[in-house]
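Hi W., the nicotinamide-adenine-dinucleotide complex you wanted:
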Amino acid sequence: MRVMVAGAAGFLGSHLTDYFLQQGDQVVGVDNLCTGSMRNIDHLSNEPRFEFIEHDICEPLDAGKVDYVFSFASPASPVDYQRLGIETLMTGAIGTKNMLDIARRYKAKFLHASTSECYGDPSVHPQNEDYWGNVNPVGPRSVYDEAKRFAESLVMAYYRYYSVDTRLVRIFNTYGPRLQKTDGRVISNFMMQALKGEDLTIYGDGSQTRSFCYVSDEIEGIIGLSRSGEHFPVNVGNPTEWTILECARAVLRVTGSSSKIVNRPLPQDDPMQRKPDISKAQRLFQWEPKIDLETGLKLSLDYFKSCI
Ligand code: NAD
Ligand code: UDP
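Structure:
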């Protein structure tokens, strides 16, 4: 296969790229480096089956025939997408359209990286794919949430009106090596703070929950979906739910750090709880995650040490 990965210099996109190259496929990586880093794909500089195009997907692109488009380009952390608000909205809208047009032109399959943020601050728990969500359309997170919800709608429209063979994965919080150290996400912040001996900053009282998936499990789930024939959204995430305070304590255990835990104000519209119902993924492609949080943090330790 010749696969296009948009967002190839990012955290998930670079792991996806590695997966396809290991399978013997060719990869065209596209990225404008707004939040990603060449460091994530440096190891591929001499790989003849990998081609990198520095490009903003909001501009049209034709890189020749491809068999599958993986649409992963978008700022993803609250710090990044709030810094790049307009770019995030345009990437979700125009950028996703440009990627869908490539799939349509070459009759390629298409998989879009959507998110648990489509559920907003959910009132249904755990979240299954039939839940329509509780999103503030005008709050600070809306530049991301509404971009992703519009993108889901656009993907479904290309499926319905143009018969493009599309898939939608709703990714829940994923972590591991290559998470940008300064992107402000909870795992990168806590790991860097613990390793540098700084205070771990808990926003609010730490009782809000997230469910953390290790990157290799997430990639396996995404590949499972890519091979399935499902066109409606599918949750892929680890259903074990942690409070943010428990997560901070796990980071301290794994790093052996004696950093203190301090509290900071909770950002506006920060979801109180998040946990995927993964029964659809289990039923459709027999996927479930294998790596628990502490094991995943241990597997990420060398990477975060290398970021200091
Ligand atoms: P990331 O920031 O590491 O990667 C995103 C990549 O997209 C970066 O390399 C960035 O430079 C690139 N990019 C952004 N806008 C672009 C544009 N207009 N043109 C070209 N490239 C552009 O983030 P990630 O965690 O790897 O996220 C990848 C995808 O998965 C995103 O779509 C994100 O919304 C989705 N997602 C991730 C998570 C998670 O926990 N990691 C959760 C839900 C959804
Ligand atoms: N968080 C925190 N301290 C930090 C970074 C994040 O307490 O240094 C909290 C944040 O308020 C949220 C959770 O951790 O409740 C997850 O935040 P993240 O930015 O990783 O992703 P989100 O799931 O909110 O998109």
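The mean pLDDT is 98.

W.
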